[in-house]
């Protein structure tokens, strides 16, 4: 099957053929002026698998990173899994989110900000219940006691520990898998003992959670998909 592309030739110092795929999935080939079309076509065919994978990934990323409209059919993360949502509006019923049978149900009028706030309130409540429970668990396990543990609206910091040992966790953390939530909690609790990211700090984290590097890697992976 022929692959369509846009060819850009250069009379300058370019010595090799290169391939780029634009955000609109346009395949752009840059090549020296003297390279024959046959050689360019062979180059493109050799890259067919990479081209297919890249186009599929870009399509997936556009879908995932698209700003939410809060309409039926969209998916939202909860504890590491992506669940569909159904929207309806029944004025006589309680407004907000119901999670049942592996699906979100949102009772709210046709107003994007109201619907978004319903999700934020629901996530904050679930984060408060889950994270505080896990903080208490690890406090007993590690014999550590923060002065307070609260839920924040931070966008870029999953967790923090102040000089006075006050812990804060973003409500967005509740969208992550449970083991990643545990990692962030252990990470911040260890800052009670060590306020920096020294070798000693990471030894403390590893002693409490030997698989922390896997969780660290997965945290970055999920962070790319969880935009809210």
Brief account:
With 228 residues, the protein is α/β, with parallel strands linked by helices. Helices cover 42% and strands 22% of the residues.
Order of helical and strand elements: EEEHHEEEEHEEEHHH
Radius of gyration: 24 Å
CATH topology of the largest domain: Zincin-like
This entry's quaternary arrangement is single chain
CATH class category label of the largest domain? Alpha Beta
Quantity of strands, as a count: 10
Strand order of the largest sheet: 4-5-7-6
Structural class per helix/strand content?
A: alpha/beta
Largest sheet data: 4 strands, mixed
The N- to C-terminal Cα distance equals 40 Å
Report the CATH architecture of the largest domain.
2-Layer Sandwich
CATH homologous superfamily identity of the largest domain = Metalloproteases ("zincins"), catalytic domain
The stretches of 5 or more residues where confidence is low (pLDDT under 50) are none
Keywords:
228 residues, alpha/beta, Zincin-like, 2 domains, 4-stranded mixed sheet, 10 strands
């Amino acid at each position: 099957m022929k692959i369509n592309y846009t060819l850009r030739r250069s009379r300058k110092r370019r010595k090799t053929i290169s391939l780029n795929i634009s955000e609109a999935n346009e395949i752009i080939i840059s090549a020296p002026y003297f390279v024959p079309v046959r050689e360019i076509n062979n180059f493109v065919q050799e890259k067919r698998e990479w081209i297919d994978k890249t186009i599929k990934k870009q399509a997936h990323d556009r879908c995932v990173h698209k700003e939410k409209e809060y309409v039926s059919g969209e998916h939202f993360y909860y504890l590491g899994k992506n669940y569909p949502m159904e929207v309806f509006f029944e004025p006589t019923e309680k407004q907000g989110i119901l999670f049942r049978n592996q699906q979100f149900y949102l009772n709210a009028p046709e107003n994007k900000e109201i619907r978004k706030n319903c999700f934020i309130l629901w996530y904050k409540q679930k984060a408060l219940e889950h994270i505080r429970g896990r903080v208490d668990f690890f406090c007993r396990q590690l014999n550590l006691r923060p002065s307070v543990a609260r839920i924040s609206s931070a966008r870029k910091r999953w967790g923090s520990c102040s000089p006075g040992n006050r812990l804060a966790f973003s409500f967005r953390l509740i969208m992550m898998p449970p083991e990643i939530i545990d990692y962030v909690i252990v990470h911040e609790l260890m800052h009670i003992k060590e306020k920096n990211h020294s070798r000693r700090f990471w030894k403390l984290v590893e002693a409490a959670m030997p698989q922390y590097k896997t969780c660290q890697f997965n945290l970055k992976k999920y962070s790319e998909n969880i935009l809210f």
